[in-house]
Design brief:
Length: about 250
């Protein structure tokens, strides 16, 4: 069992995208740090593996929620379940997203467009809608949303993903402004290039050597969670900037 003295002991954390990549790395470290982690993703086996690894490293059991974030009613049920079990939520890390492939805007299949909007945009709205009361019940809530440079630097063939990340940023900024006088602080986090399945989908054929493993971003995320006053997310927090400031190296790939 995690020690009561662990840095995140007693904190209730919800992590989406917890089956792989950045979300999985974050969920694992939050659990090892003592948080009660609720892990969301569609792949049941990967969620179970996360729980096995967390417990083998001294964490308490992770609550596993196999769910598609396009399921708005499911998100409402999740919010109600957290309300009944914990009465509050202290940490939200929303890492789940779909990339949707590379193609000209005019060639985006309408069904794909509907799906990526449902997951990457409406899913964010439904999470905020269901979780805001729980976050308000926390003495110090932090909600971190993973974004991308594509939100502000859109380019050819990235239309569906870039549009959804721009929408995510706008939505989170509006919400952060609304809850400014509460205990909730929202943060937009741009991880930059990470060695994950999504990166491989966006840059097929890229040499993965030199790309940071997703575990590398976790200390930055813990640093963001620990900040007493992160301010409004008028700009996203960039992992490459944080890393450069700490180790004195130039930012690498986009
Ligand atoms: N990696 C990069 O270089 C990079 C760069 C900029 C921004 N980002 C952002 O960082 C975040 C994490 O990306 P990543 O690289 O870690 O991606 P990843 O390895 O592909 O993981 C994506 C996660 O999202 C979940 N997910 C996808 N569709 C879902 C759905 N419909 N319902 C529920 N869960 C769903 C996946 O789980 P299941 O498949 O099990 O559902 C998986 O856990 C994303 O928001 C991404 O946009 C990544």
């Amino acid at each position: 069992m995690a020690q009561a003295s662990a840095p995140l002991a007693g904190r209730i954390a919800l992590v989406t995208g917890a089956t792989r990549g950045i979300g999985r790395a974050v969920a694992l470290e939050l659990a090892i740090g003592g948080a009660r982690v609720i892990a969301v993703g569609r792949t049941q086996g990967a969620l179970e593996e996360l729980d096995d690894i967390a417990r083998s490293r001294g964490a308490q059991a992770v609550t596993l929620v196999p769910m598609d974030l396009a399921d708005g009613a499911g998100i409402d049920e999740l919010g109600y379940a957290i309300h009944r079990r914990h009465g509050r939520l202290d940490i939200l890390v929303h890492a789940a997203a779909m990339f949707g492939g590379l193609r000209p805007v005019a060639h985006i299949p309408p069904a794909l467009w509907d799906k990526i909007l449902a997951v990457n945009v409406t899913g964010v709205f439904r999470l905020i809608r269901s979780l805001e009361p729980l976050l308000r019940a926390s003495d110090r809530a932090r909600a971190i949303f993973l974004t991308s440079a594509a939100a502000v630097r859109p380019k050819a063939f990235w239309g569906s993903y870039a549009a959804t990340k721009a929408a995510l940023e706008a939505l989170v900024r509006c919400w952060a402004d609304e809850v400014e006088n509460s205990t909730i602080r929202a943060i937009l986090l741009d991880p930059g290039a990470m060695r994950t399945r999504m990166r491989a989908e966006a840059y097929p054929g890229e040499d993965k050597e030199g790309l940071p493993e997703p575990e590398r971003i976790v200390p930055f995320l813990l640093d963001l969670l620990a900040r007493s006053e992160p301010g409004l997310p008028t700009e996203s927090q960039r992992f490459t900037d944080w890393r450069s400031a700490r180790v004195g190296v130039s930012p690498e790939r986009p």
